[in-house]
Specification:
The protein has an eight-stranded antiparallel beta sheet with strand order 13-12-9-10-11-14-21-19, sandwiched between helices. Helix content is 37%, strand content 24%. It starts with a strand and ends in a 5-residue tail after the last helix. It has three domains: 100 residues, 3-Layer(aba) Sandwich (Rossmann fold); 79 residues, 2-Layer Sandwich (Dna Ligase, domain 1), CATH 3.30.1490; 248 residues, D-amino Acid Aminotransferase, Chain A, domain 1 (2-Layer Sandwich). The C terminus is likely disordered. By secondary structure, the chain is of the alpha+beta class. The chain is built from 18 helices and 22 strands.
């Protein structure tokens, strides 16, 4: 087993990995950039090394620096978390060359499954259902910019009925994607998708696939090891999204029948066993209204929403990743995997739902996490931290567990009501009203959910705010000021700074979750 692991990430996922390392008696070393000097992860890790400035290319994306730190401080392995370099095959190759273990699949499989065109052809050859897409095999230089012209893409996609989805082959997180409903809009949408893909992924190759309207986005967690063991750990429903970014996830899916669940699980295992895939991964499917499922893509890393799987199975997925990377067999076989109860996750972002969920940075003036049985909060911030625009605005992942879906839902509503984050807008009331919406309660959680109900939910949030007595925000501000002052170093300068922040014009933003 490894004695020391370098964590090449930040925020809540870095904290999450540190916790498992402690339980496994493994020394954790976290790298950080200058803005993260006083972060929760830096404070919790056994060792912490500043790797560079706020510029990502100087810190979290600097492969050479990260590997140099790993070797200098005798780290035998690197855990990349998710995002940043977690699905970068070049980084995985560099780790291998340097003699440092990359906690994830082989670089060859990252390269294969990270390319949506090559991965789809690979999956097609396995007989797994796929959505109609660009006839890549007939395109000249199909996987390069020279052959991936707008004209070529359109010519080799004529068999696909509208609406269609233009997708970047190296994409993710909703980037490099465009939905197109009319033929005349296709050239401009392809051009826009290519431009965005080039900006985000340094790769402008795109393709077209049939756009399935009102589907469900359901993914299967998978694990493989170097000893011929390949299993799935059931599904997560991730259909509630805005701008193709997941917001609320749950397991089990409220839609799947036992028969469909078994078929999808078997398909997921067939994929990883055929690939001889090692470590954790996720097979993502689209499921239509008739419960037909289609392979979408594979994520070759741990997922943001992995805690809901852990809650219903009682399995530490980070621990399994580390075991597999250390060439040990995973701790479970397929027959050991039994779901119990239901789990829901809400992503808590520093964002403003009233303005298209744009990031809402600022200083956290008061933080109080919800407590109780079946409540888990994976968080990466401290009280009085400042949330900046330098990184992803996700603050934490709030997870609940209940004996059934309704109990998990009610527990999540309770937890959201008790979650206090003052100083910035975190959209907690929006999440709570989403969970209280009849469509969510009845399990009608299609990917179109927020397209259909976002304004209705926002109206309820706004109406709730207006019903508060005018003195409540003022009282809350006074309490926040007193709390912040007592938590400070008891200097006039610090107290003055807090008071100045609370007295800004927009009281609602500064009060954060007091609006609950």
């Amino acid at each position: 087993m490894f004695k020391k692991i370098l964590i090449a990430n930040r925020g809540e996922i870095a904290v999450r990995i540190i916790e498992t390392c402690r339980e496994m008696n493994i020394t954790s070393l976290v790298i950080y950039s200058e803005p993260d000097r006083f972060s929760l992860a830096v404070g919790l890790a056994d060792e912490a090394v500043c790797i560079g400035s706020q510029d990502l290319s100087d810190s979290y994306l600097n492969m050479e620096k990260i590997i140099d730190v790993a070797k200098k401080y005798n780290c035998e392995a690197i855990h990349p978390g998710y995002g940043f370099l977690s699905e970068n095959s070049k980084f995985a190759f560099k780790c291998r060359e340097s003699g440092v273990t990359f906690i994830g699949p082989t670089p060859e499989l990252i390269l294969l499954m990270g390319d949506k065109i090559r991965s789809r052809e690979t999956i097609r050859n396995m007989g797994i259902p796929l959505i109609e897409s660009t006839d890549i095999s007939k395109m000249p230089d199909n996987n390069s910019s020279s052959g991936n012209t707008i004209e070529n893409i359109i010519n080799h996609s004529k068999h696909i009925p509208f609406p269609v989805m233009v997708k970047a082959t190296a994409g993710g997180g909703g980037k490099g994607m465009r939905i197109v409903y009319k033929k005349e809009d296709l050239p401009s949408m392809i051009e826009a998708a290519k431009r965005e893909a080039k900006s985000y992924f340094s790769n402008d190759v795109v393709y077209i696939e049939k756009y399935v309207e009102n589907p469900r986005h359901i993914e299967f967690q998978v694990l493989g090891d170097n000893h011929g063991n390949f299993i799935h750990l059931y599904e997560r429903e991730c259909s509630l999204q805005r701008r193709h970014q997941k917001v609320i996830e749950e397991t089990p899916s409220p839609a799947l029948t036992p028969e469909v669940r078994e078929k999808m699980g078997a398909a997921a295992v067939k994929i990883i066993s055929t690939l001889k895939y090692t470590n954790a991964g996720t097979i993502e499917f689209l499921v239509d209204s008739d419960l037909n499922f289609y392979f979408l893509e594979m994520n070759t890393r741990i997922q943001v929403e992995h805690p809901v799987t852990e809650m219903v199975l009682g399995i530490d997925l980070i621990r399994q990743q580390i075991l597999v990377a250390a060439n040990q067999p995973m701790s479970y076989t397929q027959k050991d995997i039994k779901q119990r109860g239901h789990s829901i996750e809400c992503r808590i972002y520093a964002e403003d739902p009233f303005h298209e969920f744009r990031p809402a940075p600022g200083k956290i003036l008061n933080l109080k996490e919800p407590l109780g049985s079946g409540i888990r909060n994976d968080i990466g911030i401290n009280n009085r931290d400042e949330v900046t625009t330098l990184f992803d605005p996700m603050i934490s992942k709030l997870i609940t567990w209940g004996e059934n879906r309704e109990l998990a839902r009610l527990k999540m509503i309770k937890a959201l009501k008790e979650y206090v984050i003052q100083g910035i807008d975190v959209g907690i009331p929006f999440l709570r009203h989403t969970l209280e919406h009849e469509a969510f309660i009845s399990g009608k959680t299609f990917t179109s959910f927020f397209n259909n109900y976002k304004q209705e939910i926002l109206d309820k949030v706004e109406s709730e705010q207006k019903e508060l007595h005018e003195f409540i925000p003022l009282i809350a501000a006074a309490i926040a000021a007193e709390t912040a002052a007592s938590d400070s170093c008891s200097t006039a300068g610090t107290t003055g700074e807090v008071a100045g922040e609370i007295n800004k014009d927009n009281t609602w933003i500064n009060l954060g979750s007091w609006r609950n």
